[in-house]
């Protein structure tokens, strides 16, 4: 969903699918969150795409990510495409219908045995189409993004790709060589909150 604050170049890129993904950086959430933090960034857009892929657009906080953001005074836009989303949970307070302030993000490598048991159960019960089993190819991750008023969590294939743009729409080079936030890149425990969504999600890491 587009919001009223989207710059014209971003809105056009989303509507027309005109971002130059040939210049994207292929990576994983683990490597990305080793090198940057989404803390205090603005989550601006969530766009479903073909083949179960998902595009997330963030206004990346340049205070916490100075080098990655090329010391830009204006926060740049991070476009993040998840290649294969197997399932997701999305719940936020009404006041977070547009931009959301991220408080925390973490990713978890799910045990192959748990993933196999889950895909078998949900397909045999008819909860999801049988074709899901063909999509479940380890390694599979679960990534959680907490905001000030909610949580988004998705189970997905490992591969993601990212683009970084200035506020004016100019493409910026991406450097993930520095490991600055190793505690975010591969979390050891699931999020500890009492919500029913988190209790369902914690089944994977029990």
What does this entry look like structurally?
This protein is of the alpha+beta class and 206 residues long. The protein has one domain (8-205). Helices cover 21% and strands 32% of the residues. It is built from six helices and ten strands. Residues 187-203 have low confidence and may be disordered.
Residues in β-strands, percent: 25-35%
Please state the structural category: alpha+beta
How helix-rich are the residues, as a percent range? 10-25%
Radius of gyration: 17 Å
Rounded to the nearest angstrom, the distance between the terminal CA atoms is: 34 Å
Query: Globular, elongated, flat, extended or rod-shaped: what is the shape?
Result: globular
- Count of individual beta strands: 10
Mean pLDDT: 83
Number of domains: 1
Number of helices: 6
- Give, in order, the helices and strands: HEHEEEEEHHEEEEHH
> From the structure provided, what is the oligomeric state, counting identical versus distinct chains?
single chain
Low-confidence stretches: 187-203
- What can be said about the biggest beta sheet? 10 strands, antiparallel
């Amino acid at each position: 969903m587009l919001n009223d604050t989207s710059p014209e170049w971003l809105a056009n890129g989303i509507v027309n699918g005109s971002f130059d993904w040939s210049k994207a950086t292929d990576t994983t959430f683990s490597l990305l969150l080793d090198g940057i933090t989404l803390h205090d960034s603005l989550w601006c857009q969530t766009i479903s795409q073909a083949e179960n892929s998902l595009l997330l657009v963030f206004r990346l906080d340049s205070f916490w990510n100075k080098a990655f953001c090329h010391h830009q005074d204006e926060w740049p836009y991070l476009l993040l495409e998840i290649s294969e989303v197997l399932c997701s949970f999305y719940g936020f307070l009404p006041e977070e219908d547009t931009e959301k302030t991220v408080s925390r993000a973490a990713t978890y490598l799910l045990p192959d045995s748990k993933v196999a048991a889950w895909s078998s159960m949900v397909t045999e019960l008819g909860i999801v189409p049988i074709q899901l089993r063909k999509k479940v190819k380890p390694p599979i991750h679960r990534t959680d993004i907490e905001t000030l008023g909610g949580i988004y969590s998705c189970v997905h294939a490992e591969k993601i790709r990212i683009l970084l743009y200035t506020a004016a729409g100019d493409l910026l080079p991406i450097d993930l060589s520095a490991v600055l936030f190793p505690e975010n890149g591969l979390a050891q425990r699931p999020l500890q909150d009492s919500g029913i969504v988190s209790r369902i999600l914690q089944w994977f890491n029990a």
